[in-house]
Amino acid sequence: MIPALALSVLTTVSSPDGRNAITIASQGEQLVYSIARDGVERLAPEPLLLSIQGISLPPIKEATIEPFSQTFDAKTPFYTVRSRIHLEGNGAKISLGVLTLTALATNQGIAYRWETALDGTQTILNETFSLRPMGEPDLLYAYNNRPYHGDLFQNSWESIHQRGKIDSVDSKRLIYLPITLLWKDAAIALSEAELKDYPGLNLRRSQENKTCLTGSFAQYPLKEDGRDRRYSRVTQRADWLVQTPGNRTYPWRIFMMAENPAGLYGNDLITALSEPATGDFMWVKPGQVSWEWWSRWGLDNVPFKPGVNTATYKVFIDFAATYNIPYILMDEGWAQKLDVTRIVPEINLPELLAYAKGKGVRLLLWCTWQQLIGRQDEIFKRYAAMGVAGFKIDFIDRDDARVANFLYNTAAIAAKHHLVLLFHGIHKPTGLSRTFPNVLAYEGVYGLEQTGWAGNQVDYITNDLRITFTRLLAGPMDYTPGAMRNAPRSQFRATTRRPMSMGTRCRQAALALLFDTNSRMLCDSASAYMREPEYTRLLTRVPLTFDDTWCAPDSAPDSRVLVLRRKGETIWIAGMSGNKEEIFSVPLDRLPKGVVYHAELVRDSPISDCVGTDYIQEERTVSSTDKLNIRCSPGGGFLICLTPKQ
Fold first, then answer.
1. Is the dihedral of CA 443, 448, 450, 454 positive or negative?
2. What is the pTM of this model?
3. Interior CA angle at 395 toward 389 and 398, to 5°?
């Protein structure tokens, strides 16, 4: 918290619509920032500083201010939210000798970042960041989970999301981004972009001020232990964050802003501020993935024992080909003792690759990041030559500067070999998918896989809604929806054999549209999907990228969400409820006037409350003048596809 010293404003930058503003000021010899929405200060003045070894800054009174305006206008073919980003912003550069702070205000929120102009390699000791909301907003947040030997910066970034006031946060734990602050008339979500050669920003509740969150960063790893084969564990850290080129920019601190939670959905700031791709990436193909691990290779009525074997994967390939699914994933088990150079004898990989190619399907392989460190080019070259499409890289479980470099370097090497990547056991995305579109998705979420071991003491239904307005705002999210065994909370149980989801079947269908990703994992077994072909045909047609996205204003954490998305002339609409029944008024008035649509929909049935697998699938004709109300059971959902009639 800043002492009660006189505040001297250096500059205030406002968005083109005048609703969002950041003020940079001095308080004594401390540089501070504050953020306002609609003329009301939402984040009180708090200090900003980048500490560099051996570098002293001139007095703040010598700072120079350079205003600027900037337009972001770009086609984004692999962006899930919309096909073209257009953002206008006003900005200012505040220069203090070799250190510059760039502040930017757009209609979608505020961003700032540091920049240094120094020779050689510099040692970054720390970055000062804190956040102190005015009033008493609700905070949506998630703690770090299962820290390794007490190291809070070694965890899988998979926790349920909490809701409460800042003073209720456990000061002994880390909070990871994104977080979201909710006032009655405003919403702000904090995340970051361009996390390159730098550790990720995490937060702690301040000991001195219980209403303040302070930044916390992983110090640079000096020694690591990779004997586990899954992880590369840090055993010794430096007393600095990173040693990095002195002439560079640093990560953007992103404040997504809106009048309500719905206005945050589909925010473009992280993607807009990330470095665009260079070179040809048109070979990248976003697509759904048939996945075997969650269902434990659970095939039915086959003349062999399902498992990690060639016969099982041929069934998954056949399923993918039938429903135009471009990928199947071979998850953990195909490599002997996790060694990616040795394939288990039950798998004939060349045979599977040839079989899949003949069906128009491609294979993705799972591996641990520890097996790839320093060997990416060798391994990627080998498997790309065989015809493998890409890798799911797991158990990263860190966000220090070495990990940031690993992600960038691995994405670049994979791109050279035309391989796509999925990062798992990983922190939230920070815009890397724009720089390297072959990075299709990140995990960093308490996703559906958790249902294998966490029972109904966990409220998955509420968590789904909370991550819609927190983790999802950071970018592509591998939640893995698509469960075919569904139960209300009272009947739900954790199991890894024939696993289930909490809530209704139609909730799973809704999640396919609501949760952004470029590689949607169909979590259940091929047999389960093939038993219900009409439902599966609709589910597997849900696009992954859209031309535009809109979220209904009454969407909110814990209660409901409704989203409309357009892909060409086809319009998709989905909604899901919290733990209470909800009636949704479908926004047909947003359809083009005079166009008649063929509507395909799945919705909860009258008995879905107690029989989660039950649903109604129907077709009808609608236009912008029609009214359509849909009831959602507690933990329910619906999915609609609207196609113009000829």
1. positive
2. 0.97
3. 120
Rounded to an integer, what is the distance from CA 5 to the centroid of its chain? 40
Burial of 173 from C-beta contacts in 10 A (0-12 / 13-18 / 19+)? middle
Q: Summarize the confidence of residues 86-105 as an average pLDDT.
A: 97
Q: Residue 215's closest CA among 46, 401, 53?
A: 46
Instruction: Say if CB 566 and CB 548 are below 8 A apart.
Output: yes
Q: Over the chain, what is the mean pLDDT?
A: 97
Report how far residue 286's alpha carbon sits from residue 290's, in angstroms, rounded to the nearest whole number: 13
CA distance linking residue 533 with residue 539, whole number of Å:
10
Q: Which residues does 507 contact at the CB level (< 8 Å), separation at least 6?
A: 461, 464, 486, 501, 576, 635, 636, 637
Burial of 405 from C-beta contacts in 10 A (0-12 / 13-18 / 19+): middle
Summarised one tens digit per residue, pLDDT across range 502-514 is 999 999 999 999 9
Predicted local distance difference test score (pLDDT) of residue 225: 95
> Look-up: residue for tokens 């909110």?
556
Helix (H, G, I), strand (E, B) or coil at 571: strand
Q: What is the DSSP letter of 495?
A: -
The pLDDT assigned to 625 comes to: 97
For residue 466, the surrounding DSSP H or E stretch is helix 460-468
- Torsion angle of the four alpha carbons 400, 403, 408, 410, in this order, in degrees rounded to the nearest 10: 180
CA–CA separation, 497 vs 485, rounded Å?
11
Residue 346 DSSP code: T
d(CA 164, CA 145): 18
Q: Which tens digits make up the pLDDT trace of 151-163? A: 999 999 999 999 9
